[in-house]
Amino acid sequence: xxxxxxxIIDPGARxxxxxxxxxxxxxxxxxxxxxxxxxxxxVVITGHTRIGAGNRFFQFSSIGEIPQDKKYQGEATRLExxxxxxxxxxxxxxxxxxxxxxxxxxxxxxxxxxxxxxAHDCQVGNNTIFANNAQLAGHVHIGDHVILGGYTGxxxxxxxxAHSITGIGSVVLQDVPxxxxxxxxxxxxxxxxxxxxxxxxxTAGAITELKRAYKTLYRSSLTLEQAKKALARQVKExxxxxxxxxxxxxxxxxxxx
Length: 257
What we know:
Elements: E1 2-3, E2 8-9, E3 14-15, E4 20-21, E5 26-27, E6 31-33, E7 38-39, E8 44-45, E9 48-51, E10 56-57, E11 62-65, E12 78-81, E13 86-87, E14 92-94, E15 103-106, E16 111-112, E17 117-118, E18 123-124, E19 129-130, E20 135-136, E21 141-142, E22 147-148, E23 153-154, E24 159-160, E25 165-166, E26 171-172, E27 180-183, E28 188-192, H1 194-199, H2 204-218, H3 224-234, H4 241-250
Parallel strand pairs: 1-4, 2-5, 3-6, 4-7, 5-8, 6-9, 7-10, 8-11, 9-12, 10-13, 11-14, 12-15, 13-16, 14-17, 15-18, 16-19, 17-20, 18-21, 19-22, 20-23, 21-24, 22-25, 23-26, 25-27
Antiparallel strand pairs: 27-28
Helix pairs in contact: 2-3, 3-4
């Protein structure tokens, strides 16, 4: 381990032998840090926090602090972070609450730019990008390959589906279905995230079918239930539509319109 002499590491912390820890960083007693991690200067990692392999934390990040929730009464809730994530300056990730899953969770390969906030019980998938000042309220679920534009704010209990993207300054008050480009205050849909899908290897045929699914959902004057029935028929031609259909069937806040 390469640990700077000014850092404060509780003896109870479990840290892999090759972890590098910078000056003035503080690590609490219930923290576990996996191999290959780099912890920069002035980082605070506390709470019941488990961090996987190959993560990087830049200066002044606060990781694993108690929730900003008045209902929290000191329960031993958790923060779980996967592998190969980058967490830039001044990010704040809070632990979960007993009222939900007891844990805030972050998957693998995510990129969090400066000043990102993950509130209690958020569930973040894999390979996402959060631009500067993206903010999640409590209990938010973010799917794989989501991109949140700078200053995006997401209301509590909302979900953002896989492969979606939000524009800068978006305010998300309802669920954003998979594959969607959303923008505005409040956020509205502006078609399919075509560029993102191309970059991730979606075929031209699949993108065409997803555009058709978007028109079914947003441009056909169908009710949501009618649109879901129409989308179910489209699944036979494009299996990727099933992801959209499953999301719609489990939405509780309603979707952006």
